[in-house]
Structure to design on (701 residues):
């Protein structure tokens, strides 16, 4: 399906979604509160069947945090990007581990580096950094005068 | 031949007097011990990142390091003499490296291979997790430059370590002399 | 959950494998829960080579950050550089000249061959056969010499840049590559005699570490790991880039899903790579090797994603730019990260020796996982 057909079908599922213009793949802004149901619809609706989550990213926009999910379908071959805004002080979102098993490690990485909490994650703990690491390293306001030598 | 040259440059330390019934060897015990130790250093299998591939190339048939005595690469630190730090050391790995070094029996030597182990290398600026040089964790005898260094550079470093041991200039030997 | 090393209440033993271990292919720390010698759970602990590359790239310019990706998956260093260059070119709308495109594809396929050769040698060594290690490195040295003449380095070559390649090919390149292909064709039969047809090897690999098709997709596996379970995911076929749509090669699929199938996929991929090189080596078009670009690159505001097929799977580069000379956020989607998440699922119920065989066929490179 191309971008326009996808847009029609997605508006039927989630009427409150906002679409970005001018991107290579259809980019959807979804609310963090309704994310789990939307994800389930994306995965299981016949005609959509996005079964391959190939990239889960977190971005620190200085006023808020953003989550970006890149999904593609091995059955139909289309790709979409789903974005979600999170509050900077209390970033909480539902996990999608039970829908796409690859999200387990990716969400642990987002928690480790940005501090995003995923509800109902089976095992949410730090992945790369040690447990004693204070703060969230990849945020823009992370300061570490001991280790980081600025150019 | 190359192997002939090597033995010519590093002859058996001491004077050999041929007499009837075999011969007499006169030497210093320190020299003989250093000569034996330098010619049979067993490296520990320790490679963290890209330099490990060049270390594996040095171990394989083209740049063979077993001609110099480094035949047996042991997996356990209890049986190894030299630890070749091939790769970057990060904050999480540093206690592991220290523990491996402590588990090695004396006399032990350390070679820091590559730019990352020498000083942090390409990961020096703006990284929050890299140890800027393996010598922040354990004392190093020989440093090798390069990213990654060629196998010939690693062989040169191994031969320099051998010469350093023979001349009595490693940290261990200086510590022993001071008493 | 987090297991401490010791004995659990059910009498199961919890032990460490790594981080310093001859068969973990880098610094991977596994905590294994065993009941007797049967594995009940495998828990990977990562971060022992986490070099904060994504943070570092936020302060490097668009020409500088490419050298760092060479060191992430150092066995496919050309292909990683290629992915980054494609992303930057997408943002700046740069047209790459045809000569540079063909050179890039040739370098990619040579790198894929070298990576699979090293995989073969290292995996055989883990399973217990020491001789293939020396065979693999002998052939790899031939490729390293070819790379060194043209690119200047043996392992981490920064040869592919935004716009094309960095320098002209060495005059000996075509001759040496043709000689290498003839040499390797005679040797790959040796590989089959030594290892593939070996009864002991087959007994160790067949039926071990089964990954079904649905699980491979759900765990996000790509590359030979997924193709051995029947998932068609070769980026060179699905979303062709450079001249991959103009060469004839087949996507190698197997349906076994076990270690032996993954092994066979890679052996056949080596033959496909040789076929691509043979088709291209005599037909390199004349022209520029690099398009004209500005000295300082500034990507426009927006997001760009590029995908390439490394020797391990899908490598993605996701650049978010705010219009400056350095990226605002870069995310590298590494293939090993997702392949590793399937290890627990594949290894349950097997013995420790089988765990080593499974890790060998997954072809993990830990700096690629930890970034």
């Amino acid at each position: 399906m191309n971008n326009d057909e996808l847009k029609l079908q997605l508006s039927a599922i989630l009427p409150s979604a906002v679409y970005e213009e001018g991107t290579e793949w259809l980019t959807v802004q979804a609310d963090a509160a309704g994310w789990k149901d939307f994800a389930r619809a994306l995965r299981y609706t016949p005609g959509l069947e996005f079964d391959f989550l190939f990239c889960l990213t977190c971005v620190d926009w200085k006023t808020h945090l953003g989550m970006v999910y890149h999904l593609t379908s091995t059955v139909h071959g289309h790709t979409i990007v789903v974005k979600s805004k999170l509050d900077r002080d209390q970033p909480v979102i539902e996990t999608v581990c039970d829908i796409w098993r690859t999200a387990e490690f990716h969400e642990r990485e987002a928690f480790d580096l940005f501090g995003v909490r995923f509800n109902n994650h089976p095992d949410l703990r730090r992945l790369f950094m040690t447990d004693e690491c204070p703060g969230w390293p990849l945020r823009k306001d992370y300061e570490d005068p001991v280790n980081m030598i600025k150019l | 031949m190359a192997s002939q040259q090597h033995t010519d440059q590093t002859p058996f330390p001491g004077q050999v007097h041929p007499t009837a019934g075999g011969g007499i060897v006169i030497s210093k015990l320190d020299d003989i011990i250093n000569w034996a130790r330098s010619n049979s250093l067993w490296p520990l299998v320790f490679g963290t990142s890209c330099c490990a591939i060049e270390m594996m190339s040095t171990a394989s048939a083209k740049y063979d390091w077993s001609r110099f005595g480094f035949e047996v690469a042991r997996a356990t630190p209890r049986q190894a003499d030299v630890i070749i730090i091939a790769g970057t050391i990060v904050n999480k790995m540093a206690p592991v490296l220290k523990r491996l070094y402590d588990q090695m029996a004396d006399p032990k030597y350390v070679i820091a291979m590559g730019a990352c182990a020498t000083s942090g290398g390409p990961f020096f600026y703006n990284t929050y997790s890299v140890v800027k040089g393996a010598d922040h964790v354990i004392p190093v005898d020989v440093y090798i430059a390069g990213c990654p260094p060629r196998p010939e550079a690693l062989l040169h470093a191994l031969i320099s370590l051998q010469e350093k041991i023979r001349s009595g200039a490693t940290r261990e030997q200086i510590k022993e002399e001071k008493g | 959950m987090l297991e401490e090393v010791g004995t659990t209440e059910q009498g199961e033993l919890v032990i460490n494998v790594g981080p310093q271990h001859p068969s973990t292919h880098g610094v991977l720390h596994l905590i294994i829960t065993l009941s007797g010698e049967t594995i009940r759970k495998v828990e990977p602990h990562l971060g022992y080579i986490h070099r904060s590359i994504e943070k570092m790239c936020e302060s490097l310019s668009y020409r500088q950050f490419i050298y760092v990706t060479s060191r992430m998956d150092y066995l496919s260093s050309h292909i990683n550089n290629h992915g980054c260059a494609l992303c930057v070119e997408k943002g700046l709308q740069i047209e790459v000249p045809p000569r540079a495109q063909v050179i890039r594809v040739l370098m990619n396929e040579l790198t894929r061959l070298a990576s699979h050769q090293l995989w073969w040698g290292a995996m055989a060594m883990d399973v217990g056969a020491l001789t293939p290690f020396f065979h693999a490195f002998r052939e790899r040295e031939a490729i390293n010499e070819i790379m060194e003449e043209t690119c200047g380095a043996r392992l981490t070559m920064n040869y592919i840049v935004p716009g094309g390649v960095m320098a002209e090919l060495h005059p000996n390149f075509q001759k040496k590559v043709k000689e290498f292909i003839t040499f390797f064709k005679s040797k790959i039969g040796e590989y089959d005699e030594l290892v593939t047809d070996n009864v002991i090897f087959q007994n160790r690999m067949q039926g071990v570490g089964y990954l079904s098709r649905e699980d491979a997709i759900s765990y996000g596996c790509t590359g030979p790991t997924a193709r051995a379970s029947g998932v068609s995911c070769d980026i060179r076929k699905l979303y062709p880039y450079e001249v991959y749509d103009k060469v004839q090669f087949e996507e190698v699929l197997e349906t076994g899903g076990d270690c032996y199938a993954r092994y066979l996929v890679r052996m056949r991929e080596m033959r496909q790579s040789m076929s691509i090189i043979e088709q291209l080596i005599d037909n390199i078009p004349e022209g520029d090797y690099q398009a004209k670009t500005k000295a300082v690159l500034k990507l426009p505001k927006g997001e760009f994603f590029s995908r390439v097929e490394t020797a391990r799977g899908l490598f993605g580069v996701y650049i978010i730019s705010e219009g400056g000379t350095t990226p605002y956020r870069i995310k590298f989607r590494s293939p090993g990260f997702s392949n590793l998440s399937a290890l627990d699922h594949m290894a349950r119920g097997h013995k420790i020796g089988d765990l080593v065989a499974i890790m060998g066929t997954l072809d993990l490179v830990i700096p690629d996982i930890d970034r």
Remarks:
- The beta strands of chain C are 6-7, 13-17, 29-35, 38-45, 160-161, 164-165, 302-309, 314-321, 329-333.
- The mean pLDDT of chain C is 89.
- The CA atoms of residues 90 and 197 of chain C lie 46 Å apart.
- Chain C touches chain A through 36 residues (CB under 8 Å).
